[in-house]
Sequence to fold (496 residues):
Amino acid sequence: MHSLNYKIVVFLMGILLLFNGSLMLLSSLTSFIFKDGVTFELTLSAFLVLSTGALMMLFGRQYNKQIQKREGYLIVSLGWVLMSLSGTIPYLLTGAIPDFTAAFFETMSGYTTTGASILNDIEIMPKGVLFWRSTTHWIGGMGIIVLAIAILPFLGIGGTQLFTAEAPGPGGDKLHPRITDTAKRLWLIYVAYTLLETFLLYFAGMSFFDAINHSMSTLSTGGFSTKNASIAFWNDQPLIQYIIIFFMFLAGMNFVLSYYAFTRKFQKIIRDEEFKVYFSFILIFTVLTTLIVLNKEQYSLVQGIALVSQVESIFRDALFQVVSVITTTGFVSTDFTLWTPFLTIVFFGLMFLGGSSGSTSGGVKVVRHLLMIKGGFLEFKRALHPNAIIQARYNKKIVGDSISYNILGFFILYMLSFIIGALGFGLLDIDFESTIGLAASTLGNVGPALGDFGPSHNYEALPDAGKWWASFLMLLGRLELFTVLILFTPFFWRKH
Fold:
C-alpha cells in the first residue's frame, strides 16, 4: 500500500527546530536584558538550531502532503526526542550543565513537563538559561505538535493524525471540526492564562522574572522553579501560593472546559463527569491530609489568632501539595514524605491519578479511572443479570467497546511500564522506596519522587544510566505509551 513518507517527517522536524531556535532567541534577549554574561552563547545556540532546522526543511521540501497514522506517530515521538536533543545546546554552550547526559535529562524533563531537576543551586544560574529552562516546559505543556498545527494551516489535511498521536487519550472533545482551529483556540487560552497568572503573581509580590517563569511552569504543569526551595520560598506569602494553586487547578482541568467558561456555557462544565470527579478528589484528599497533619501537630497548636494562622498554613500546604501531585505539576511547598507514612502512600497513589484528559497534566488521567471503575461495577451487574444489555455511560453518552478496550489496554500497559521502570532503577542498586517513587514519578511526569529523590531532594544523585532510563520513561508517560511503544513493534515498519 504505502511506505513511510520520510520527507514530510524530515520537513516537520525542521519546522519544530525552527520553533525551538526562535524561542532560544527569546532566552538570549532575556540574557541581554539581565546582562548575565551568556547572551552570545544563547544566540549561538539559537542559530545552530535554526540553521539545522532550515537545512532539514530544505531536504524534505518535495514532500507528499498526506500524513498517515504511521507518520503521525513517528513525527510526534521523534519530534520530542529531537527537541530535547537540540534543547541541550544552551545548557552545554553556556556551561550551566556541562555534562551531556545531565543536560539531556534536564531538557527532557522540561519538554515532558516532569520538572525533575539535577541542578543543586538553581539561583546561581544565568537568567537567560533559567528562562530557557521554563520555556521548555511551556512548549511541552500544550504540545509541540499542537503548536505546529496551530501555526501551520497547511497541515490541515494531516493535522488530525498528529493531534491524535500526541493526545491519544479518551474524551478528545473538539472545539471545532477543523483541527487547526481547535489547536489555535487551545493555544489562545493557554497564552491568556499564562499572561494572567504572570500579572497576578507580579502584583502579589513576585519579581516579574520569577512571575513569568512560574506561570510557564504552572500552566504546563511542569514544576521547574527559579528558587532552590521551589514554592516553599514564598511560604510566608499565602496570596502567591493560592494564585499558583488556582492556576495549577485550571491547568489540570480539560482546556475545552475553559473554552466553555469563556463562552459562558457554564452548565457544560457543571455537568461534566470528569470535572466533578477531579474536583471531588482534590477536595477529599485535601481535607484528609489537613486533618491528619492537624492531628499530628496538635501538641504544638496554640490559641487565638496564632491557632487560625497555623491551621490555615497546614490547610494551604495540604491543598498545595494535593493539587501539585494530582495535576502532576510537582511544585513543592513542603516535604509531604515527612508528614506520616500513611500520607506518603496517599501521595504515591495520587501520582497515578493524573489530571483531566485534554489538560497539560501527565499520569493516567481522571477519565480513565472513572470509566474503569464504572466498567468494574457493570461487571457486578452483568454477573447478576447475564442476559441484560448493560453499557457504560459517560456524560450521558454510551461508551463504545473500543474505548473501553483502549482504556483497559492503556492501564495494563501503564502498570507494566511502571513495574519494568522500577526494575530498571532496581538494577542500578537504588533502594526499594526510591525505585518505586522514581518509576511512578517519571512515568506520571510528576517530578518529586520518594526516598532519596523526594520533594526535598533532586535527581542529581541518579547514575547516568538511571538518567537515560528516567528520560525514556518521561517520554513514554508524556506521549501516553502507545505513541512511543508502537515504534518498537515490527509491523509498524513493514510496508503495508
